[in-house]
């Protein structure tokens, strides 16, 4: 019988709560929030399912050893004591990713080098030969995390970051990360309950993630491979079952998902990515300038999420741009919950509307705000007082 073990799901800043919720709904146990991470327990099948189905995780790590280290010699000895021959052989290529928060160790590359030395020396001492490092496409990817004097060695079950879904064949300048897009959508409350619009859709990432959430499609169903598929104990039949069961939970979506962009090149890229994801029946994209658009069905509820240009500095162009966002929402989009992300925090004052929510997130290294504007059909006063005329 498959036994449960501890795992750690890595995520982006501010997504810890929604990742914990995802894990709970997926069936994880012993869930604990950390800093840009959530720990949990499950069996091998759940590890496969977590990689396939979690929308806001970037990595699923399986810790295999934790020990105290205070210098390079103690690190080398502890790593050398581990049973590497049960996890790999001479033909297995490997790579090491290291994160260090410690006064004892200051250089992550140096720590990686010492761990590598301990592993290859273990094989050389036993066989006279050594396995090779392959940083680009290893058979086994290891994660080393040192916090002060505590070192944790983990197997990286994902490989390349889980934001690489496998559907994106074309991108625009500064495309939004797929995990960031999914997290923004979930923070906005999107579950497929109405029509959806991204009025500045670029290469279509928000549209695709919105459709997969609405239809309950596993976000990584188009991914080419996971690292665990190269492990010596990989259970192909179990993984196939996990994929089959997950796909049986896909649901129908009775509303419309639409993307606008004024650039023909962006429309073509979005169409290519949507086709690669197999979602053409759910998403349409049109060459439309948002500032000259209006809501297609004024009486219907609309959920809007977008990622406008931030600009390198606050200048006249950005001021006009953000004023135009506010004016367009106010005049042309009644009955709309409009969300957008920006790192240009000064520009928000020019929208001319009061946001009902502000959530701190990060787009890459940029501190950003996810803001919500509630555009009511009629006046806000009438919304809360039906007798008001």
Explain what this protein looks like in three dimensions.
The protein is α/β, with parallel strands linked by helices and 389 residues long. The protein folds into two domains: 5-156, VC0802-like; 178-216 and 227-384, Rossmann fold. The chain is 31% helix and 24% strand. The protein contains ten helices and 14 strands. The strands form two sheets. It has a seven-stranded mixed β-sheet. Helix 8 (264-277) links the parallel strand 9 (257-261) and strand 10 (283-287). Helix 2 (44-53) crosses helix 7 (236-247), helix 3 packs across helix 4 and helix 5 crosses helix 6 (205-215). The longest helix is centred in the N-terminal third of the chain and has 20 residues, at 108-127.
Class based on secondary structure composition and strand pairing:
alpha/beta
Mean pLDDT over the residues: 93
Q: What are the segments in which pLDDT stays under 50 over at least 5 consecutive residues?
A: 379-389
The succession of helices and strands, N to C, reads: EHEEHEHEHEEHEHHEHEEHEEEH
Strand order of the biggest β-sheet: 2-3-1-4-7-6-5
Sheet with the most strands, sense and barrel status: 7 strands, mixed
Say what the CATH topology of the largest domain is. Rossmann fold
Give a count of the beta strands, DSSP E runs of length 2 or more: 14
**Please, how many helices?**
10
Q: In whole angstroms, how far apart are the ends?
A: 67 Å
Number of domains: 2
